[in-house]
């Protein structure tokens, strides 16, 4: 395809800057311990300083890939698909989610919610960031709110975000990996005193899997 044609296809969501795709065990949040096929899309300008996949930020580093190809690869491995990033809502998610659901797959997203919501989702995991807050539509459809705890002030941020989220959302606090030794005991105490919250850990890192 010509460069201009590729650009148009990416803008339409018919191609996506694919960083990586892999079959593994979900390590975080509500579906921890269950198998899923992850599609990591490049491109993010939210800019969390503790992000553990900063190589995903620059979409130009990741080849535009036809969504049909991504869907075919996913269909070989799993019924549960997790689209993550980067920030997947940077792009139009309607084409890929439509195709995945047409194949009978359960389609999940992990997102900061910083951009307008596109796509059709069976599970919407919202992980809001202070740098760029979620759009209202993201709060309204959240199934799982996952707030990363990097310092003590993040507990207040978590409560502010929970207050904006719909009443059915399941609430998680997750220690930022580099601060897990300091923050995990604080999270344990917080959840025991505020039982509407649950603890999420990055169990895939303990298991040494992707």
UniProtKB/TrEMBL annotation:
Residues binding substrate: 25-27, 40, 84, 210
Record EC number: 4.3.99.3
SUPFAM superfamilies: Radical SAM enzymes
Domain Radical SAM core: 31-210
Keyword terms of this UniProt record: 4Fe-4S, Iron, Iron-sulfur, Lyase, Magnesium, Metal-binding, Queuosine biosynthesis, S-adenosyl-L-methionine
Annotated binding of [4Fe-4S] cluster, by residue: 44, 48, 51
Entry's transmembrane regions: none
Top enzyme category: lyase
Record's catalysed reaction(s): 6-carboxy-5,6,7,8-tetrahydropterin + H(+) = 7-carboxy-7-carbaguanine + NH4(+)
Binding locations of S-adenosyl-L-methionine: 50-52, 86, 127-129
Protein family membership: Belongs to the radical SAM superfamily. 7-carboxy-7-deazaguanine synthase family.
Subunit structure: Homodimer.
UniProt function note: Catalyzes the complex heterocyclic radical-mediated conversion of 6-carboxy-5,6,7,8-tetrahydropterin (CPH4) to 7-carboxy-7-deazaguanine (CDG), a step common to the biosynthetic pathways of all 7-deazapurine-containing compounds.
Identification of the protein by name: 7-carboxy-7-deazaguanine synthase
The organism's taxonomic lineage, starting at the top: Bacteria, Pseudomonadati, Bacteroidota, Flavobacteriia, Flavobacteriales
Gene assigned in the entry: queE
């Amino acid at each position: 395809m010509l460069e201009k044609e590729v650009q148009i296809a990416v803008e339409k969501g018919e191609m996506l800057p694919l960083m990586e795709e892999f079959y593994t065990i979900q390590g975080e949040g509500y579906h921890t311990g269950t198998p899923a096929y992850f599609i990591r899309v490049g491109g993010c300008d939210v800019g969390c300083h503790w992000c553990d996949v900063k190589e995903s930020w620059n979409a130009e580093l990741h080849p535009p890939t036809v969504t049909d190809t991504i869907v075919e690869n996913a269909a070989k491995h799993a019924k549960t698909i997790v689209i993550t990033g980067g920030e997947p809502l940077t792009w139009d998610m309607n084409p890929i989610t439509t195709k995945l659901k047409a194949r009978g797959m359960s389609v999940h997203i992990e997102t900061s919610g910083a951009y307008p919501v596109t796509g059709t989702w069976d599970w919407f995991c919202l992980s809001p960031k202070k740098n760029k807050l979620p759009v209202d539509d993201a709060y309204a459809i959240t199934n799982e709110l996952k707030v990363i705890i990097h310092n003590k002030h993040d507990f207040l941020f978590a409560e502010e975000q929970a207050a904006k989220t719909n009443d059915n959302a399941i609430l998680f606090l997750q220690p930022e990996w580099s601060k897990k030794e300091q923050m995990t005991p604080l999270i344990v105490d917080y959840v025991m005193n505020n039982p509407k919250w649950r603890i999420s850990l990055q169990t895939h890192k303990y298991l040494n899997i992707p």
